Amino acid sequence: MSQSSTFLNRRRFLRTSGVALALPLLESLLTKTASAKDGKAPKVKRLVTIGTYLGFHTPSWFPEQTGRDYSASPVLKPIDDLRDDFTIFSGLDHRAPNGHKNWKNYLTGKGTPGISLDQIVAKAVGEKTRFESLQVTCGSSGEGQMSFTKEGIALPAIGRPSVLFGHLFHSGENKARMEYLLDSGGSVLDVVLDEARSLQRQVNARDAAKLDEYFSSVRDVEQKLKKQRAWLNVPTPKVDFKLPEFDPVAPDLSLECESLMYDLMVLALETDSTRVISFLAPGQGQVFTIDGEKLSAGYHGLSHHGNDPDKIAEFNAVGKEHVSRFGQFVRKLKERKDSDGQSLLDSTAILYGSGMGNANTHNNSNLPVLVAGGPFKHGSHHAINRDSSSAPLLGDLFLTLMQSMGLEEDRFVNASRNVNELLF
Q: What's the domain range around 177?
C-alpha cells in the first residue's frame, strides 16, 4: 500500500469508547471544508508561511485605496505585476500583547505557548512527504521564533543554504550513518518506555497523567522515526542546482541568503519533498548595501526610525528588498508545475507578512499581511475595521487557509469564523 493511500485511510475516524472507526471520504464534509463556490474538493496542497521579523513601515505597505483599483504602495511596488496573484489585508491581528517578545504570536495567535498554523497543517498533510515540514531562516534568526509544537516548543530553523540543500538532497553515501542513528534512537526509546511503564504503576494520579502525556510525546517520536526509516530507501530527487562557494550567512549578507533560501524552497515544493514550509527573514543590526549605497544605520536601528523621513526611506528600501525577493519566489512557483500539471502557485497557499505591526513602537496590531497563490479570488485590498465588534481576526484568515486544504478546523485560538467571503 502506498504512503498516500495509507494517509487517506487514516484521515477520518469516528472515535468512541476507545474504538476508532475509519470513515470514507464524505462528499458533504469535503464540500463544507472547501468553501469554494463550485463545492469541489480543496485544491490547495501546500502551505508556505513567511515572516519578516522587523516588519514594514505600514503606511508605506498598505495601499491608500481599497478594492481592486488600488494604487500600489511604495513597498509593494516590486510585486505590482503580480497583483492578480495575491490579496492584501489591513486591520488584521490576533488582539495579542505588544512587544518584540510577542512576535511569536504571528502564527500561534494569542495562545503562545501553543501550536503554530504551519504545524497544525503539517500534522494533517505531512505524512505524504519525506519531510513533514521545513523551518528556514537566514544565518541566525536572533530572537525570532515562528514555528511551535503543540507543547509550545519553538522548532529550530535551518539558516545555511548548503545545510538545507544537503537536508533535501543528501547523497546515498550517508545512508549507513542515518540507519545507525535511527537504530540507536529506536533502541533508546524502547528502554525509556519500559522504564516509564514500570514507574507508572508506582505514582499518584496526577503523575500518571503526566506520564500519559509523556507516552504520547514518545509515540510521536516513534512515528517520526518509522517515517524516516520508510523514506530512507527512497532515493532523494536529483536537481540541477549549483550552490555558491560559500554560505552568505553573515548578517550583512542576509538578503543574499534570502534569495538562495527562496530558490531552495521552490525546489523543495517542486520535488514534493515537503508541503509545509515556514521562513523567517531575521532582523538584527545588519548594515545593508542596497544599489551600491551603504545604509546609514543598522536594520534594527532603522526600524526604530522615530518618524524621521530619511530613516523611514532607508527602512523602506530594506522592505522593498524583502518584497522583491518574495516576488521572485512567487514568479518561480508560477512557472513550475506540480505532478498534476498544475502551477505550483495555484496549488500553494502563501501567507506573507510579519508579527510586528510597527517596529518603531513595538506594536503588534494591524499586521502587514497578504495571501498569495491558491485558487483564491485575488487582486484586491481588503480593509478590516478593527473597531467593529464583528471584525474578523488574523486567525479567521488562518481558518480559511486551513479549510481550503481540507482541514476541518472551525476555531483558531480566539478566532471562530473565517474570511471565506473575501477569498472565494
A: 171-235
